[in-house]
Amino acid sequence: MSVDQQPGAPTRVVDGVVLPAPGTWEIDPGHADVAFTGRHFMITKVRGRFTDVRGAVVVAEEMNDSTVEVVIGMASVDSGSAQRDEHLRSPELFDVEQFPEATFRSTRVDWRGSRGAVHGDLTIHGVTREVTLDVDFEGQVRDPWGGERSVFAARATVNREDFGVSWNVPLEAGGLLVSKEIAISIDVETVRAD
Predict the structure, then answer these.
(1) What is the DSSP letter of 86?
(2) CA torsion sign, 49 to 72 to 59 to 30?
(3) Beta 3-4 vs 181-192: how paired, if at all?
(4) pLDDT tens across 88-98, in order?
(5) How confident is the model over 62-67, as a mean pLDDT?
(6) Which of 131, 123, 135 is nearest to 185 (CA)?
């Protein structure tokens, strides 16, 4: 493995690929988008996002030794419809009073070039399941205040019923009102903390 890094630099070149420098990169909540997409009537896409996202990526010398920890405030759900959001927060779905937070904690990283698979424990609605995020390092920039930012994007698909979020209505013609399969997409800016 070939590594080229200037002392204190926010990035390094590993085998010809630019990657973030080792250290703790904290998620900037104001520039974090954790979104989900499901199907309504098994046809229409319905999208939502969470606005309360906190956590950090700890980048190791060896990318495969890196870790990720994220906390999501479930009451911050925003689907563009106040009525739908109240239903999502209700005991029938997220039950935010009993389960106010969802978490993701990585358990293993398989990194190749500028992308990798981050395996971890996702806990939603008090239920923990292993989920794999397909992650891309999208670049690094210095902000106007002198902070160093690294940007990551990730994707996964989960079955919401695996997490006990199982409310649904059968359709007269067959199928269900809301899809079981939910696509998750994540875009986060992280700020170098050390």
Answers:
(1) H
(2) positive
(3) unpaired
(4) 898 988 999 99
(5) 96
(6) 135
